[in-house]
Amino acid sequence: MDWLKYALKRLIMLIPVIICVTFILFVILSLAPGDVARMILGADATDEQIAALNHEMGLDRPLLIRYVSYMVDAVQLDFGTSWTGNFDVLEEFSFRLPYTLLVSTLAILFAIAVGVPLGIASAIKQYSLLDYGCTFVVMLLFSMPAFWLGTMCQIFFCLTLRWLPVSGVGSWQSYILPAVILGANTLASMIRMSRTSMLDVIKMDYIRTARAKGNSNKDVIIHHAIRNSLIPVVTQIGINFAGTIGGAVVTENIFAIPGIGSMLINAVKGRDVPVVMGTVIFITVIVCVINLLVDLVCAIIDPRIDLAS
Amino acid sequence: MRKKKTLSEYSTGELVLYRFRKNKLAMLGVAMFLFVALFILFAPLIRPYDTVVKQNIADRLQGPSSEYIFGTDELGRDLFSRILYGGRISLFCSLAIIAIAFVSGALIGGAAGFFGGKVDTVLMRIVDMLMSVPSALLAMAIITALGNGVWKLVLALAIGQIPRFARMVRSSVITLRNMEYVEAARCFGISSMKIMLKHILPNGIGPIVVSATLTLGAVILSISSMGYLGLGVASPTPEWGTIISENKVNIQYYPYLGIIPGICIMLTVMSVNFIGDGLRDAFDPKSKN
Fold first, then answer.
1. Is B138 near chain A, with CB under 8 Å?
2. ipTM score
3. Which domains does chain B have, with CATH numbers?
4. What is the pLDDT along chain A (309 residues), one digit of tens a residue?
């Protein structure tokens, strides 16, 4: 039950983080110049109308009071309504979240499924053609903008060859390209990380011992090396997840996926503060929870990691 | 006759430079970067600025030719000029972002590491908070507040990078702070500021420079992504991401409009990454495998 205690402790520690992150965001977003009420009502509005709307939205109160009332509402799961679209932030978010989570999870799974075996293989056969090939691909993927790769692949595979649907979420095929594009960067770091980590492990004394005992090469790699080489890779997955959610904004934009990303872009363009605020808080919580899960998985893989301390 | 130096007579800096120059990939990176940087720096000598926005409908969507090296877009604007001047924004902004993040990160992390105690706890708590927000989202929140614009974009992306630098500087200061030579310097009564600048900074700067170089590549990509999403530099001001975004509908039938700007971004980022990898291996030869 150690891990349960640890998980609970981490979740409780999340509360102050969220309170502070919300405060920082609140301060940043309140710096927005210009009059929100005027923006919503348009240029023709009279000063009385603007003052009335400001009062209605509570924008005429001091920052700290607005923050406290936001937090009180947030605890009751009320994250306000959009300024521009008149929808409930939490409702819209929970409607869109599954798309983003699905694409991000598929992307990460794709990156792990392809990247880890490739990385391990290129470490075992160091300086082989495969190794050089992987290094080259990693180099390319790290220097390529995801939006460019996405746009070019969309044009090539969807418009020219017509193999896959161009956009939307109509069928399972429409998730293939977004997941691959979103996972491309993680794929590169998976290959690099598992290669480096495997190379480190292979040099260890206990691997030499295992070989000296007369175990076959396959046996040594599968039973002695892989598990130990996976710990840094799992940690890397956690680090990459935050980036993947950020990257989802771009991918969703290219492939017109109705996820969090497209909502966020519209909100940023329209200066829709409640939506931006809510989205950033939710995603921060999700990323923190995923990092917690990653730490738990690490403890399962490596019994030496002591969660209690 | 000049006496040949033995290995121990070389300073650390000379050794780093030597190892860096031996690294072929890193030198290739330097050459590629200089190539791009020179074009961008001397852009006004190559093409006057008005060719960037001058529309010439008669010559719209012309493929690469001797008159238009990279062809023209749907408004008949010269793609080569747009990429040259777009590169100025991409490159200058990313350097500015790194500079801001580097200096603020060094101040925060340096203070936290050097003074320790309460200062450290408070500063690092704030840094940890900022770090738990994905940097792309933080940048978007800041853009929501400030609005579009080149300098606003620089600020938004720079703030997202500060925590990383602050943490790195802090940990290297903490390692060096307890070294004997720092203690010796303190015994001589040298002021904290001077110890910081003369004794700790030169020894701890290596990994931070490496990370700054590698971050530079990522920042160039972020700027262009923001431009592509319409949250960064707005058209008609050219920027590499914006150029791809404004030509999106024409790329299928006029592929050069997508391929050329994409390759420009890729080559620049790749050259920076080569330099970063080379610097890392030069500062820490053990890390190479």
1. yes
2. 0.85
3. 23-287 (1.10.3720.10)
4. 677 888 888 888 888 888 888 888 888 888 766 667 767 777 677 777 777 777 777 777 778 888 888 888 888 888 888 888 778 888 889 999 999 999 999 999 999 999 999 999 999 888 899 999 999 999 999 999 999 999 888 888 888 888 888 777 778 888 889 999 999 999 999 999 999 999 989 888 988 998 898 888 888 888 888 888 888 898 888 888 888 888 898 999 888 899 898 889 988 888 888 899 899 988 888 888 888 888 888 888 777 777 665
Three-class SS of B55-79: CCHHHCCCCCCCCCCCCECCCCCEH
Q: Is the CB of A155 less than 8 angstroms away from the CB of B252?
A: yes
Chain B residues closer than 8 Å to A139 by CB: 270, 273
Give me the amino acid identity at B135.
S
Chain-chain contact of B134 with A151 (C-beta, under 8 angstroms): no
